[in-house]
Every structure is written in C-alpha cells, then in structure tokens.
C-alpha cells in the first residue's frame, strides 16, 4: 500500500467529500471555508495526483466552474486515503 502524505488543505477537502456519493464544489467550499482561488488549486492538485475525479469528467477546472462541478474520490485510492485521513 502506498503511503499518502496530504497537506492540511488537502485533508480538509477530502474530509468534506462523502466517499460514497461525492460532493459538489459548493459543498466543499462551504465545508472547508477555503478561499475559492486556493480551493481550485488544492482540488487540481488532488486531481493531478489521481485522488479526485469529476463526474462527468472535466478537462479544465476554472474557479467559476468549481461550485457546479461534482467531485468523487477515486475508488482506486479510497482505502489509502481513508488511512491517511485517520493518521492525521
């Protein structure tokens, strides 16, 4: 199993997402209270690492699209991410 290291903001975003149903960008924004510009950067980083996916798939994520985009945890990393969240 790969040991995943997450920043505080990454942890906040992942904690805001229901691992079974996902969450909209607006739900993540409300739960984390991270400034939208910074939230976009954190989400893009998690997507580039393969930890998050959008449903339906989105090729580029702009700040304006964040609120209406639905995010899900990549099922291939779900167990490792749960362990990383518990460790923190």
Question: What can you tell me about this protein's structure?
Answer:
There is one protein chain. The protein is mainly alpha-helical. Helix 1 packs across helix 2. The relative contact order is 0.25. The mean pLDDT is 92.
Structural class of the helix and strand makeup?
Answer: mainly alpha
Gap between N and C termini, in Å?
A: 17 Å
The number of domains is 1
Number of helices: 5
CATH first level: which class?
Mainly Alpha
CATH homologous superfamily grouping:
Winged helix-like DNA-binding domain superfamily/Winged helix DNA-binding domain
- The helix/strand order is HEHHEHEH
Structure keywords:
88 residues
What is the gist of this entry?
The chain has 88 residues and is mainly α.
